[in-house]
Predict the 3D structure of the following.
Amino acid sequence: MDISIVILNTNDLPYLAECLESLRNCCKTRRVEIIVSDNASTDGSVEMVEAKFPQVKLLKNKENLGFTKGNNVGIRASAGNYVFLLNSDIRVLGDCIDQMADFLDRNPEVGLAGPKVLNRDMTLQCTCRKDPTLWNNFCAETGLAKLFRHSGFFSGEQLFHFKGERTTDMDILVGCFSAIRRKAMDEVGLLDEGFYMYGDELDWCRRFRSGGWRVVYHPAGQAIHYGGTSTVNKDPVHFAVLRQHSVLRYWRKYHGFFGRAGIKGLLIFRHVRRWMGGFASSLIQPAGREEGRTRMRMSVACLRDLFGG
């Protein structure tokens, strides 16, 4: 098997159907298998795959395993020399799969690559990141990253100043679409299942680079990522806490006492600022009252979690 395409799905039926449809005849000269790892969906996703895409290998997880465990289930069931991990709300454009596989063929030192990812309006989606540091997190939280949007020095983790027009080595690539060399993955290991969701790509890309493998953005392949279609939007408070857990896990894993203390201080600053912004929004803008209250609940939940309450 040349390529295994692994798609994790959790109650994302219409987007999953579009994703699978975009993969029909995605490669003309390579042997490809498509695997859907389904996290106990109840929206008819399983039945849709069985009825419309019988060629797809469908793995029915008995519970919602989260992002990392759910993807690892799919990876373990795969056989390809290259493993492509796709979110269910990805639509592959043109010969993207072939382009990414060709790039890996030509560059045996690349362990993980990512294509150009577009928003639904076809503008560039920022999928390139720097390694998290106290400085770039400070720039993000204080607004310096937005004020100096085109500056590499003042940017946060997200490289908004990068226009995405050239093939470039990166620290981190967002995990909505990853093309991975099996040999490299066998060396560095699967996704760290201690990250339920969020932060896993920071950890994985760092492990690839530490193992001597390049992590590369390659814009010849293109895909649309719709984004915001998952269960995150249904319970934003819960997932804000999960995101924070992942941030803290990453900093515990790779940074010492002062780094961990620094990131906690920046998180406290973020939540206080978000609470104040939500409070002001709920008072001044009646139309944004519910959104403001949600931001306040998210901040309170995260602060309680930080202080062990």
Remarks:
- DSSP finds eleven helices and eleven strands in the chain.
